[in-house]
Amino acid sequence: MTNARTVLVTGGNRGIGRSIAEEFVKLGHRVAVTVRSGSGPDGTLSVVADVTDAASLDRAFAEIEEKLGPVEVLVANAGITRDMLLMRMTDEDFEQVLDTNLTGAFRVVKRATKGMMKAKFGRVILISSVVGLLGSAGQVNYSAAKAGMVGMARSLTRELGSRGITANVVAPGFIDTDMTAALPAEQQDEYKRKIPAGRFASPDEVAKVITWLASEDAAYISGAVIPVDGGLGMGH
């Protein structure tokens, strides 16, 4: 990429978020990550923030702007799961997942786009999931939150598209992370049988799609849902 940008990755201290932050650093960008605890990868600015806490986000944005400049590329990745069947799911289980995964994305988007509008440049990338459109038993809360990101990105595109700002959704499938590695071998095999590619993705296969979406090359792509799922969620 020709231009070094200020990038914010929420939840950038582990899993896919960490890989995304590492990939942006590798390309020479100024990268901040929000963490609730721990720290982001080498070469990033770690700011302590919780996407459910507006005051902590205000402090995080102030620190990022002071040290790296206004956020030009936002990757809304922070998320939690509270998986269980609908009959057992409490209101709180549903509300907490929505508050972190969907309302949390809204809170960071609202803060980041102010600077993007002034600069007449911006990339909003929402990290959804294959289950946002495919559905998943035991994930009514998570699937609903991840599906909500599609409506958010498309509405943002209609509001902000004329100002050089794009908003897209990346929907990963199964990724090789600590979480999938902990699954029993039979369960891993069963998942792989459902994936036309026959394997899980490496985290950097997801990260590279995201850095491309943030680049000048993707300036005319907005409101899209880009699957990185080996064909698992085809047809949506």
> Radius of gyration in whole Å, from Cα?
17 Å
Q: Oligomerization state of this entry?
A: single chain
Give the N-terminus to C-terminus distance in angstroms.
Answer: 31 Å
Characterize the main sheet: 7 strands, parallel
Gross geometry: globular
Please give the CATH architecture. Answer: 3-Layer(aba) Sandwich
The run of helices and strands is EHEEHEHEHHEHHHE
Q: Report the structural category.
A: alpha/beta
Global mean pLDDT: 95
Percentage of residues assigned to helices = 40-55%
3D structure, described in words:
With 236 residues, the protein is an alpha/beta fold. The chain has one domain: NAD(P)-binding Rossmann-like Domain (Rossmann fold, 3-Layer(aba) Sandwich), CATH 3.40.50. Helices cover 44% and strands 16% of the residues. Strands 3-2-1-4-5-6-7 form a seven-stranded parallel β-sheet, with helices on both faces. Strand 1, helix 1 and strand 2 (30-35) form a beta-alpha-beta unit. Helix 1 packs across helix 8 (203-213) and helix 2 packs parallel to helix 3 (91-119). The model has no long low-confidence stretch (mean pLDDT 95).
